[in-house]
Amino acid sequence: MVWKRMSFIVVLLVLFAVCFYWMNQSYDPLARYPYADDADREILLEYLDQEDINYLITQQIKPEEIMPFIAVEGFDIANTRWYSTALQAQEDDVAYIVNFINEYRSRMTYSTLEDILTHYSYSDLIRYFETSDDYDEQSELVTRPDEFTLVLNGHKTVFSYEPADLTLLEHLPVVSTQSESKGFYLRAEAATALQQLMEDATEINGELGGGLTIERAYTSFESQVALYEQAVSEHGEQASWFEDMPGESEYQLGYTVSFALNDSWEEQVEIAEDGSLDYSACEEELSNLQRQQISWLRENAYRYGFVIRFEEGKEAQTQKAWQPFTLRYVGVENARTMHEQDSCMEEMNFASS
Fold this sequence. Notes:
Blueprint: H1 2-26, H2 38-47, H3 50-58, H4 63-66, H5 80-89, H6 94-104, H7 110-119, H8 122-131, E1 140-141, E2 156-157, E3 166-168, E4 185-187, H9 188-200, E5 214-216, H10 221-235, E6 256-259, H11 265-268, E7 270-271, E8 277-278, H12 280-284, H13 288-300, E9 306-310, H14 315-318, E10 323-329, H15 332-341
Parallel strand pairs: 1-2
Antiparallel strand pairs: 3-4, 5-6, 6-10, 7-8, 9-10
Helix pairs in contact: 5-6, 5-7
């Protein structure tokens, strides 16, 4: 009787082992993954372990998201959607993209990845991540540098961003430039508005632009380096009242333009220890025509979508000295609101305007 029971148990164990073996052989790790065809399944099983497959299924990652990258050295399944979004936003070698995301993912957020790669190249981003403390160690990269009401304060930087629709300012009075200069540029909408402003400013004295002469418009990151360093050499610790660090100048956005002013203007601005600024000496040097131009711009610039970017009396908000001939394009509606409220850009909530 005992031997019969023992024999029965052995038979059961053998049957269990056989069944377990065949079940294990026929188990499909991708049974809960309905997206792949036979070719994709073969590749997935070749490169992914069980933990990776579980992640693939849980996150419902599609073959088109993972297949371009799965065989690349350094591939991390947790970064799959980062790789895919990066490739869609800005095409490049997939191995390069994998290395880029693996190295710098912690410096970005997934929600802003597409915006960042729409406006900055991989090489520029790497340069920023590696050298961002050259001028401002607290700088924060702006993800949407194309927003025309963007205010570059609080350590915001657009690094090497260049607007896509820069338009040459033609047939307008400009200061003489070096022979290698390619002229002055603004973004298309601002350039059109400036053209109309200067045509109408003719009423000041009968000349195109009313005697106003364009001295500065779009300024690249590289050009801003020289301007900032010159300001530091001239003004020392007070340089920020007159010039911005590279990447933090609104001239780089393509919406800011300045007309020529007296060369001695910045030198004659008196800055007290408490941060107050005195323009008495500057104003004494203004000609009657310049006074008329300042008055005309204050009364009319908003009609064309421009505001005086750094106005007298707003230094505490802008952290800049008064620049009567520096205009910023913000659109007609915003400019009208700012004119009526006597507001500067720092006082505006453009998201709700």
